[in-house]
Amino acid sequence: MNSEKEKGSVPRQRLSCITCFDALWFCYSPVHQMQQYYRLGVLDNCSAKWKDLFDCLNLKTKRASEVEEILEAREKAKQHIWSFRTPDEAASHWKELFGHLDEKDD
After folding, report:
1. Global pTM?
2. Which residues contact 62 (CB under 8 A, 6 or more apart)?
3. Which residues contact 28 (CB under 8 A, 6 or more apart)?
4. How far is residue 104's CA from residue 106's CA, in Å, rounded to a whole number?
């Protein structure tokens, strides 16, 4: 069938800007704007959504190999949401935060 699948390589995910466009469209909706106003006290100017859409459209003009390299580099540059700790580090951090709960008032 397909030579790429026979080689066992991972199929490339096709870059789609539809999600960026949908996010931009939603950003201008009254629901989102009122949410932002309620939470932050200001309306959203949607500049981050515009940036994401332009970035996606810019990536569409590049070769697939370049896009893959750029996306991999971005993924590596992202900080992980969790901070990993050894069991000893986790125990000491837990005691630091919640150790006062173990102390008994006499």
Report:
1. 0.60
2. 70
3. 46
4. 6
- 3-48 pLDDT per residue, tens: 444 444 444 567 789 999 999 999 999 999 999 999 999 999 999 9
Give a three-class secondary structure readout of the chain. CCHHHHHCCCCCCCCCCHHHHHHHHHHCCHHHHHHHHHHHCCCCCCHHHHHHHHHHHHHHCCCHHHHHHHHHHHHHHCCCCCCCCCHHHHHHHHHHHHHHHCCCCC
For residue range 50-96, what is the model confidence (pLDDT) as tens digits? 999 999 999 999 998 999 999 999 888 888 788 788 999 999 999 99
CB 5 within 8 A of CB 11: yes
Q: Which of 83, 58, 82, 81 is nearest to 71 (CA)?
A: 58
